[in-house]
């Protein structure tokens, strides 16, 4: 597609802006209207541009399949969307946000301070040797009591 | 802030232009319809953020334009990933797939859309944007200027240059029925 702008009739340079507006359907400049009445070059240029405008207008007209029910479909997704659905959607959003927030807080919470307790490294290992003795302390006390009776 | 009644009015008033605009980006009516729906839903979710510094229509067209650009970007990534030739270019092939006129006219419109998309792709970005909004989507000059954040005078200048360039690129269509 080779550009051949020079072959296309051109309007007078001082009326280019008014020409562009008129070519695409916006009249209203009285100076342009007066000029057009007396300038065959501008009339020819305008006629040539209106050919293009008509063709563009025809090709750009939406088919009925594109326009049919469009407004209704939009309303169904916006102003007529069931409130319950909107609430449910926002409920999901709120639930997800709450879960994410809770997870965030849990992960960011500082670790619990160490509870005081036995310092296991300091346990006296000798105690472990007497563990049998400690566990049978009741029995030993009974034996002691029997021996005292015998002595008595 | 836009209330529900204002939003419904916005949808009804702008849906036709919105479809044209989305189609000018995406080149496919089904995808344009999806994009328009998604953009309206996005606008509704952000309706509290709307401040009446601009008209609701231009606010929405900005959302829609950005949404279409996102879709094009995703399409290009998909095309790259799957090495599907042409998938990222925006195929306007079905532009007139369901128009009222007969099959010859539909085929001609389809071919014209293809050539127009190619020619638009060669324009500087600002000219392309202005042409899409004004000539294809049918916004007013004031709406186009406001959507793009430029003056009406600059809009006219870009529109003039785009029109001239496209006329030059599409001369083959001049005498077609």
Describe the structure.
- The complex is a heterodimer of chains A (152) and B (177).
- Helices cover 66% and strands 0% of the residues of chain A.
- By secondary structure, chain A is an all-alpha fold.
- The model of chain A has no long low-confidence stretch (mean pLDDT 78).
- Chain B is mostly helical.
- Helices cover 70% and strands 0% of the residues of chain B.
- Chain B has seven helices and no strands.
- Chain B has helices at 4-26, 29-45, 56-82, 103-121, 125-136, 141-148, 152-169.
- At the A-B interface, helix 1, helix 3, helix 4 and helix 5 of A face helix 1, helix 2, helix 4, helix 5 and helix 7 of B.
Low-confidence stretches of chain B: 86-99
Distance between the termini of chain A: 133 Å
Radius of gyration of chain A, rounded? 49 Å
Sheet with the most strands, sense and barrel status of chain A: none
Shape designation of chain B: globular
Helix content of chain B: over 70%
Helix content of chain A: 55-70%
Write the layout of secondary structure elements.
The complex is a heterodimer of chains A (152) and B (177).
Chain A: H1 16-23, H2 30-38, H3 40-59, H4 64-67, H5 70-77, H6 83-108, H7 125-129, H8 131-135, H9 137-151
Chain B: H1 4-26, H2 29-45, H3 56-82, H4 103-121, H5 125-136, H6 141-148, H7 152-169
Q: Top keywords for this entry?
A:
heterodimer, A: 152 residues, mainly alpha, B: 177 residues, 7 helices
Provide a concise account of the structure shown:
Chain A is an all-alpha fold and 152 residues long. Chain A contains 9 helices and no strands.
């Amino acid at each position: 597609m080779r550009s051949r702008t020079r072959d296309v009739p051109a309007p007078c340079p001082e009326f280019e802006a008014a020409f562009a507006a008129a070519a695409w359907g916006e009249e209203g400049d009285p100076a342009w209207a007066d000029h057009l009445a007396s300038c065959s070059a501008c009339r020819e240029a305008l006629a040539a541009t209106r050919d293009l405008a008509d063709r563009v207008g025809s090709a750009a007209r939406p088919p009925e399949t594109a326009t049919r029910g469009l407004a209704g479909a939009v309303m169904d997704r916006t102003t007529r969307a069931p409130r319950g659905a909107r609430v449910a959607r926002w409920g999901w959003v709120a639930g997800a946000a709450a879960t994410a927030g809770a997870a965030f807080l849990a992960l960011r919470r500082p670790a619990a301070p160490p509870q005081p307790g036995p310092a296991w490294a300091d346990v006296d290992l000798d105690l472990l040797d007497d563990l049998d003795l400690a566990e049978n302390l009741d029995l030993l006390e009974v034996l002691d009591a029997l021996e005292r009776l015998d002595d008595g | 802030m836009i209330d529900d009644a204002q939003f419904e009015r916005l949808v009804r008033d702008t849906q036709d232009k919105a479809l044209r605009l989305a189609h000018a980006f995406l080149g496919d009516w089904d995808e344009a319809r999806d994009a328009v729906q998604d953009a309206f839903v996005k606008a509704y979710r952000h309706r509290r953020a709307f401040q009446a510094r601009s008209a609701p229509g231009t606010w929405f067209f900005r959302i829609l334009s950005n949404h279409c650009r996102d879709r094009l970007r995703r399409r290009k990534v998909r095309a790259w990933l799957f090495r599907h030739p042409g998938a990222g270019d925006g195929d306007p092939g079905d532009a007139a797939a369901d128009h009222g006129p007969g099959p010859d006219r539909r085929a001609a419109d389809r071919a014209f859309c293809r050539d127009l998309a190619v020619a638009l792709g060669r324009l500087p970005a600002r000219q392309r944007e202005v042409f899409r909004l004004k000539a294809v989507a049918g916004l007013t000059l004031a709406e186009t200027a406001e959507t793009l954040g430029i003056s009406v005078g600059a809009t006219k200048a870009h529109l003039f240059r785009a029109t001239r360039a496209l006329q030059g690129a599409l001369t083959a269509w001049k005498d077609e029925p």
